[in-house]
Amino acid sequence: MSNLQSNSYDDISKNIITCNKTSEYQKVWEKEASEDSVKSAAGIDRIQKGNEIDQLLVKIPQFYENFKSGKHYGHILEFGPGYGRIPLYLSKKKDVQCNLYTGIDISINMLKKLDSYFDKYDTFPNRKLIRQENTSLPVENDSVDLIISSAVFLHMNKESVIFTLKELNRVAKKGCEVHFIGSFPNFYGLGSFPSNFISFFKGKKTNYMKFYSLSEVQDLLKEHFDKISFDISVSDFSVFHRKFPKAIPFNKKFRKYSLDNSPHSQLYNLAFGSCFSAISKK
Ligand SMILES: C[S@@+](CC[C@H](N)C(=O)[O-])C[C@H]1O[C@@H](n2cnc3c(N)ncnc32)[C@H](O)[C@@H]1O
Which residue of 67, 113, 152, 225 shows the fewest CB atoms closer than 10 Å? Predict the structure, then answer.
């Protein structure tokens, strides 16, 4: 253990350490994790039938469905893993392996769940799970080969995102692979209208989505994650979300158009698609 780690974090169990910091924002996540961790992580109610692993591996982003099987990494670090939906998928369905997995989450309930699922499904046995909120990460400089974060930055305030990007930049090895999937909701996204409209009447929780423009995402990464160059794309949220009824005028047409790979549709997606992902250039 480095000094930073032993000074700032307490051991909870063999694999989990925690800092003392708590906040209202953290309490929202703890509550969601204890009520329905699948809903908290993937945004849909847990389906209480079939086998457990199928209940957990839901709404997998297309990027991971298309992921090459059998990759081996030295050190994988995931920011905001929740109960481990993405790493469980990578391990069980894509045969991804690593020497060390580090999971960093704000919620201790989530990390405890992740730890027990990883044991149960024989996933990444050498792991370090860290509960923190905007605290320096007890991870060595230039030590990580793959960084993953899916649907986390969009909930955080922008100062926390900048703090986190700087920390991730610090720990990334040169040439590190980085996947920020579904991370930055598009301010101009047509698909954001329905949820914004509803939240206008229902009020917003502290972890409600924060919006970005494409140039804001590009500048943010250039300034605070300068070790890596990124390709920005729109994740499979596309224009109107696939869950939205076909009855919405032009919804089906929009969706079909947004998924076709023509240069026009790619431009259109970048302008009006719902959520940006940033993936390190190969
Ligand atoms: C929507 S869930 C996504 C979970 C997981 N990445 C997935 O795709 O299934 C967001 C996760 O990020 C965690 N989180 C939110 N804000 C965080 C922060 N500031 N630091 C670390 N984790 C955070 C939450 O506790 C939760 O587990």
Answer: 67
